[in-house]
Amino acid sequence: MTSISHVVSRRSRSLAAAAASLAIAGAVGFTAVTAGIAPVFAEAVRVEAPQVPSFADVVSNVTPAVVSVRVKAKVEQTSDRGQSFGFPEEGFGNLPPDHPMRRFFREFRGFGDRESHPRAERRGPAKPRPVAQGSGFFISEDGYLVTNNHVVDNGTEFTIVTNDGKELDAKLVGKDERTDLAVLKVDSDTKFTYVDFADDSNVRVGDWVVAVGNPFGLGGTVTAGIVSARGRDIGAGPYDDFIQIDAAVNRGNSGGPAFNLSGQVVGINTAIFSPSGGNVGIAFAIPASTAKQVVEGLIKDGSVSRGWLGVEIQPVTKEIAESLGLQSDKGAIVANAQDDSPAKKAGIVSGDVITQVNGKDVSSSRDLARVIAGYAPGTTVDMNVWRNGKAETVKVELGALPGADKQASADNSAPSVSSSDTLADLGLTVTTADDGKGLVVTDVDPDSDAADRGIRTGDVITAVNSEDVTSVKDVTDAMDKAAKAGRKSVLVQISRDSANRFVALPINQG
After folding, report:
1. Scanning 58, 147, 345, 396, which has the fewest C-beta atoms within 10 Å of its C-beta?
2. E-strand stretches of 88-166
3. Annotated catalytic, 6?
4. Quick one: what percent of the chain has pLDDT higher than 90?
5. Is 150 considered catalytic here?
6. Is-contact 265 258, C-beta < 8 A?
7. Which residue of the set 68, 135, 228, 254 is catalytic?
8. Which range, 36-50, 53-67, 231-245, 492-506, is most confident?
């Protein structure tokens, strides 16, 4: 097979020879002027363009389902002249009042940005004004559509702008702050083009994605990229499990869909990482599986009901796994089972490591939170726990997730102590609390592993390897037992400000 480069090279040599002949004849052009010289340049050089994937078919099919979302809210008048909504006047620098860049920043907003009209006069009663804009997409032909909670938050009026420019009123069906999702409904006789959620379990790092949305108010904008990572935790909430993509996502894309090449929604664009405030190729989308579950609940009840276990948990590190005899650092270790919680009633205790729920592996503490939230209150689940060196199964009937106002009360009073003693192998000085509940840390060797792992003065050691301790001898006995079992570390349970945590400390074998 002749390569493109070879064809181009061969044609170049022929053209060079022809040009030399014309130069000898003193002729320039496409027609020979000297007898015996054939015409040259009769055919232009053409190279077949390589066949490359195009997103045009996907875009043409899904774009009618994607909309711009405009949100209005009642704002109170504070003066007859001058009203700012979060975009400071100094942000315009020294631009004159009528400069087009001022108009750009006032008109094109997104990601919950507030509209700013520093020069506008406002008199009379408060009126609804645009405060935010974002993106969304229809999920049914009868007008249900999905966007982000932070786009519609505090809104009183909602306008949907379709891809062909039509403006439609919408009402809020429900929203969920924990996952940053919201559902709106357009009441119309029109049958809307809509899109389906994908099975995001099949989404792989490196797969193509196409983002469609309303960046900076420029509706119907399409960008493309790949899935950069999965399972991202960005600290947005307890159920973080974002898909990271590198398609260009900017202010106003919030609530818009990220599609696979089959035109299905694999994620909902909700956040970006950007030191500058603009796209740097790092965006985060809510997975379709999470969105589908939440959206169904919002449409059905206007809210989301989540299962509740009632435990304080922390990740299982390699050191913790080794100290407990676990083969891997998967699962979630229970730091505390709250009073009157489903976990407490089922007999789950501090030190248990939850490894499976209904046969599904629990990879981390955050994974456990997501799994439990996926069950309805009242559901009974089988939990596999690792306890005292062996696996057990515990049946738990989940409760309903309480509101944020229901918090466990904390007793922050410091325990009274008596004389101190030393645990040299652990780098700790401890004393027995006067109430006999554990050992109070009175000093920490700054060069010790205990200091490196965050143990500090005032912490209370309540258990070692799931055995309650009330004396230094209890600790040394637990360490000797672990050493004889071939363990390299012991699991120390620490209580601080009425909250429990576990720390694995190496055993000084010498």
Report:
1. 345
2. 117-121, 128-138, 144-147, 157-161
3. no
4. 39
5. yes
6. yes
7. 254
8. 53-67
Residue 206 token pair = 């490196």
d(CA 494, CA 414): 14
CB-based contact 241:363 (threshold 8 Å):
no
The answer to whether 343 touches 334, Cβ cutoff 8 Å, is yes
The C-alpha atoms of residue 79 and residue 119 are separated, in whole angstroms, by 12
User: Which value, to the nearest 10 degrees, does the dihedral of the CA atoms of residues 93, 97, 102, 104 take?
Assistant: -160
| pTM of structure | 0.66
pLDDT digits (tens, 9 = 90+) for 401-443: 876 434 333 334 444 444 567 788 888 888 887 777 788 998 8
- The 10s digit of each residue's pLDDT in 28-71 is 343 444 445 555 556 777 777 777 678 999 999 999 999 999 99
Q: Is 99 a catalytic residue?
A: no
86 pLDDT tier (thresholds 50, 70, 90):
very low
Q: 322 and 416 in contact (C-beta within 8 Å)?
A: no
Token code pair at residue 308: 């509740």
Q: Which residue has the tokens 């005032």?
A: 458
Q: Which of 113, 176, 180, 449 is catalytic?
A: 180
346: tokens are: 């089922």
β-partners of residue 135 are 68
C-alpha 289: how far from chain center: 13
User: Which tens digits make up the pLDDT trace of 313-365?
Assistant: 888 989 899 988 888 899 999 988 888 899 999 999 989 999 999 999 998 88
Q: Rounded CA gap, 290 and 176, in Å?
A: 12
H helix runs in 275-387, sequence order: 288-301, 318-324, 342-346, 365-373
Number of residues in the chain: 510
Q: Which two tokens stand for residue 40?
A: 């040259």
| DSSP three-state, residue 177 | coil
* DSSP conformation class of 338: P
